[in-house]
Amino acid sequence: MTQMQEQEIADETARAVDAASRGCPEYRANPHPLYQHLRENAPVCRITPPHGVHSYLITRFEDAKAALADPRISKDMYAAIDAYRSIFGDSSIALDDNMLFADPPKHTRLRRIVSRAFVPRRIEALRPRIQEITDTLLDNCSTLQPVDLLSAFAFPLPLQVICELIGVPEEERPEVQQWCSVVARTGFSKKDKDRLAEAENTLREYFEVLIARKRKAPEDDLLSVLIQTSDEQESLTDGELLSTLWVLLFAGHKTTAYLIGNAVYTLLTHPEQLRQVIDSPDLLPNAIEEIIRFEGSVENATFRHALEDITIAGTLIPKGSLVQIAVTSANRDPAAFEDPDTFDIARPGVQSKHLSFGTGPHFCLGAPLARMEMQIALASLFRRFPELSLALPADEAKWLTVPFPAFRGLTELPVVLDPSR
Ligand code: HEM
């Protein structure tokens, strides 16, 4: 390649990244052409989103998979505190004293303690409650035409499920939901950050009271088990306990909520494959894995930072730099998936390959719960409303506009549940 051609590609990359960083709507509606360009031309690309802190974005499958498990790329955000604080503010830092933002040996200890409470028996025992919660939400939706499926179903379902798991009493959930929705939807302006801090403080105070109550009167829920474990064996500090509740609430809530929205949208825009799933429900588990690959709800894994100078795909990531791993891009890499931009519910081997739940030591702890929720949610929705349709043209759907965000999801999903009414 000549120097001039190289310069042209570099300019094109800079233009595309800049447009994406400004959150231009075409990019948000469909970020995949940009990721394709980056995989082909700048697989490790230095980006500067509007929060002003630059990071290195990794877009190819093999690089992403290796980086997710690379001990030289740290998840201990306390160590990168200045860069991280300037993006997320102070109160988030305190709430990040949990496994998601820790390296071994702390990560190993925190994950071990939570895994002891997060056993398959406890998850499986939630199945009838998830079905009940789903049915009630669908009952409530059924009188609304059209209905925003995100706010009426996709968000409340995982929130209620995670509250059920943790042990938040039913009557206190609406308030928790209200504060969570503030945290879920904030941006990076000063006003957004203030609202975020207020919501975080309120939730933190609520959890402190809940912990004290469960300590006095334990029940059969995950929080009571975590408290008992902390008191008896290997322990979580009070800060770690609080922060663990926080990570479970958010890791288990927004991810699944946006994924339900993405799933319904993807199936409605591929009606022949939706029909196959409705006619043969045993196709659903693989269809869900393909949805998670094709239009997953995690666009970029959580921030990391380089503990030393690291060279990936010929690009030097200097020690101390923030690193982002574009899971969405990795899942569409033709080097890993044949015909990656085609949605195919029968795609073989997709479950064991996509990176939507991460990989390595931080592999999603809640993946079995998320899969169960998705299956119950989608099976119940389409069984009850087999003629469900979008209430707006598919290309007018509104996607989150934050550039290079953690989440890929819709801001609303207006649907007609039953066109015959
Ligand atoms: C970690 C995705 C649902 C709990 C992760 C990671 C990803 C992910 C990508 C790794 C992050 C990284 O390495 O930077 C998802 C998706 C979900 C989902 C796409 C839904 C479809 C859940 C649920 C829970 C949960 C329902 C719990 C109730 C966690 C926890 C971690 C985690 C605790 C941290 C694990 C660790 O650091 O060792 N998740 N998640 N997730 N997830 Fe999930």
Automatic annotation (TrEMBL):
Entry keyword set: Heme, Iron, Metal-binding, Monooxygenase, Oxidoreductase
Keyword Glycosyltransferase: no
InterPro entries hit by this protein: Cyt_P450, Cyt_P450_B, Cyt_P450_CS, Cyt_P450_sf
Lineage: superkingdom: Bacteria
PROSITE patterns cross-referenced by the UniProt entry: CYTOCHROME_P450
Gene3D superfamilies: Cytochrome P450
Cited CDD domains: CYP107-like
Residues forming coiled coils: none
Family, similarity comment: Belongs to the cytochrome P450 family.
PANTHER family on file: CYTOCHROME P450 YJIB-RELATED, P450, PUTATIVE (EUROFUNG)-RELATED
Name under which the protein is recorded: Cytochrome P450
Source species of the chain: Streptomyces hyaluromycini
Origin organism lineage: Bacteria, Bacillati, Actinomycetota, Actinomycetes, Kitasatosporales
